[in-house]
């Protein structure tokens, strides 16, 4: 009997060795094929698959071929894969929900025409957005902060319009960004130094910032080295490509505007909000736009306003505006700030700084004859496509902000929303378990793709961010993560993500994201396709991922096997190299991982094909 068991063990050992050796040979042959020259993107695909091959002895369970079949009604693998064709050249910089032609059909009042207006299903493109001729991988950070390849965003208008303001300069085959701005022509660093004399930027108290009307986002770019992460936004308007430039530089930014719709951020999200000559009419409509900033500003947070109408008595001639208009504009701003219980703590030159009082609720109730109207909505985070209201969001006096830790301690401290039981179904223990889970997942990702820690991927997106565990486990000064909270998610946890010192945004993945094509280096999505299984077409979501992913960018999908088999079939018709892999805990786990690399191709290229 013992002899028979010994023989069986030897047989199983031999089979295991044979399987591992076969997989490693497969990776070698795949690598040889990739070296044959099918497109510039294969250099990155080679690095990813080579890494997986090298790890045959480290993570033997991470096999590219799944051992689970799809559930009944799944994709028939024998079906022919539909090849998705390139879009016409006119769509190279297409932004579906901020399309210029569609925008002009909407009213201009209150910037409505610059808000999101997405195409109906029958008008959606079903093709792959091409990169422009000559497109190259952006420079690594921090060089990318100062230089952007001209071919990636070939628009020179800002170099002329903003020449004296030092925004951007065209030099040969690159754009150079000196770090200037309309209000800081001497550079963002000196401007931030001035702010830091009033605002505690250096000690981790201020971590998350909002830059409204950001231009090319130099303010956010130079805050990064001070461990402050800014969410910058600007409309797609006559200043062509300003947000595109920001993202090419490696700075977090989205296309957006303060118009009639609430901003896609949770309440009490930001430690600081900023406007540097952003041309937003803050005093109009009884200060409704300031009320919206107040909603997303934490108690104790700061609002910085630089430019008109601040210090109008000195500057009205230089601004070429009537002093009566400027005086009235500042009066309205001061009145709105008082109503919101913001205390002005500094006014120097053309810059004023207010601080939102931590006891704003009691402050307002103590005001005699206060005209403040308190919002009646029970959920101040319910914002998607909801109109702004002329009312003040209450703090609710739950004390959650007083316990917020400075950054980086904030990253893994228990977020106040969870500590105070404000997130249904998420206890402190579940939060800590989630952190452990994502540390394990990210550790596995780094063994699959060793480029994760090199700085190769600067702009990263998590399409279904949950509690922010992926971004926290991955945290590094080399990159940033845009944490997206699907509007249909069971739990709204974006406020928790901000309390961790991370940034994110609400979004419905049945629609296009508010960004330009080719703006993310790596996209991660866990459970996203299961979430949207009966909500919209998988092909539409994958085409949007392809639109916003750079050539040679990487994708990591984690989901149930039956869902990923359907996704895999669609990807087979896209210009991606991909592999379906087992869960890091082994082949018996129904959750699988799909890793992919978008091939390099540009306008006119026809030699790229997908590989399985």
From TrEMBL:
Enzyme Commission no: 2.1.1.-
Transmembrane segments: 12-33
Topology with respect to the bilayer: Single-pass membrane protein; Single-pass type II membrane protein
SUPFAM superfamilies hit by this protein: S-adenosyl-L-methionine-dependent methyltransferases
Subcellular compartments: Endomembrane system; Membrane
UniProt entry keywords in alphabetical sequence: Glycoprotein, Membrane, Methyltransferase, Signal-anchor, Transferase, Transmembrane, Transmembrane helix
A Pfam family the protein falls into: Methyltransf_29
Superkingdom: Eukaryota
Keyword Transferase: yes
Family annotation (PANTHER family): METHYLTRANSFERASE PMT2-RELATED (PTHR10108:SF1119), SAM-DEPENDENT METHYLTRANSFERASE (PTHR10108)
UniProt family annotation: Belongs to the methyltransferase superfamily.
Protein name: Methyltransferase
Taxonomic source organism: Datura stramonium (Jimsonweed)
